[in-house]
Amino acid sequence: MAFVITAPCEDERAAECVEVCPVDCIQIGLEHYLIDPDLCIDCGNCVSVCPVDAIYHEDDLLTEDLPYLEKARAFFNR
């Protein structure tokens, strides 16, 4: 399981999440930051620093946010 960055990040690229990730699994995509679902260790550091509350655990995603998980998987070719 992994954390997923959702819609609020599309207009906000503050990148605090990148700075606190201990495994460097967050990269910038075309529209927003993305978390590599295979590298994410579920530490939650990124959640606590996100200024726009855009990061959710995969299990807690709303139906309308599921495409963001698929975008991350496609971006990292998984």
From TrEMBL:
Its cofactor is [4Fe-4S] cluster; [3Fe-4S] cluster. PROSITE patterns: 4FE4S_FER_1, 4FE4S_FER_2. The keyword Secreted does not apply. Residues 31-60 form the 4Fe-4S ferredoxin-type domain. Pfam families: Fer4 (PF00037). It comes from the Bacteria. Keywords: 4Fe-4S, Electron transport, Iron, Iron-sulfur, Metal-binding, Transport. The keyword Flavoprotein does not apply. Gene3D superfamilies: 3.30.70.20. Ferredoxins are iron-sulfur proteins that transfer electrons in a wide variety of metabolic reactions. This is Ferredoxin. It comes from Bacillus norwichensis.
